[in-house]
Please model this.
Amino acid sequence: MRFLTDQDVYAITIRFLSGLGHDVVTAAQLGLAQADDLELLRMAQDQGRIFVTRDRDFGGLVFVLGSGAGVIYLRILPSTQNAVHAELERILTLYDEQELQGSFVVIEPGRHRIRRHAPNQGSQAPRTPKRSG
Model:
């Protein structure tokens, strides 16, 4: 599978995914160290990558703004990294890349939640209705 990792993803997690044979690039490698969240999601979608982050704000972007990128949100701390990595490896065997591309996945020690979304191509921010009167 192909992944784009956010700046906040631990280096050990990046090595873990690479060690499993996945194609992993970091935001910094793409010159996106200072990019905003929406720009990162667009890059992941444009490159056909699943976005991996520790930032919970991406759930709002995926569902409210209709971003078509798949997101894996890791609820991980140094003390829980082995359990989270085990669950991450498990979901990578349970779901194929296409399923993950259309989903928001929350991974915690020993469990995960997956919610599929309908990608909105060319996603835009929602419009604020004009006030009459």
